[in-house]
Amino acid sequence: MIKVLIVEDDPMVAEFNKRYLREVEGYRLSGLVHNVKDAKEFLKNQPVDLILLDVYMPGATGLELLSFIREQNIPADVILITAAVEKEKIQTALRFGAVDYLIKPFEFERFHQALMQYKEKYHFFSKNQTLRQEELDVRILSTEQKQGGGEVLNDLPKGLTSSTLQVIMNVIKSKGTGQFSTDDIAETTYISRVSVRKYLKFLTNLGVLEESLTYGIGRPVYLYTLKTDKLNLVNRFL
Question: Which CATH superfamily is domain 2-141 in?
Fold first, then answer.
């Protein structure tokens, strides 16, 4: 299990990070602290593999903690989860070796992606003492040429079908310009929520849907709105 320390001063954000973490297999929360001083004390007594770190906190900042971690050669990786959007802060975090940088408010899918990518690298390093250039490029540095841009949009992503997309689009069109959630579509189409989410994400990336995040009781809810003037973008997939 990958041991995680959350360093976040906002209780609500800290709670969301805890809930999100519980939904990703292979991770265990080792501790949660609300400032840099307590984080340093925690790290003296208990090793962790990954730190989910905020930047803006009372007293010292998360970047100061990241600098301290590197100066002390503490063997822990860091993912920044913060509202800090200044170029200088992002560059500083990356120069200090942050493995990812999530800007609040972020989607659970982006959080999940960050943890899945980290888990893959963590286990890859755990299993290999030496690496070949090809392995390093593909598994760690991601320098292999990947299909992207217009090429990706010429075909449906793997696992999606035009027939199911048509069913989902019919329901979406019936909503007009009103907002709807993943659950709304799943309940109407009798398609699993997980599958519906994949189609809605595809349509969002395509530009046909606009996605927004709403915070309420429990987990945040993603709401979608159809961009009727962009319907032509999906026609070639139907």
Answer: Response regulator (3.40.50.2300)
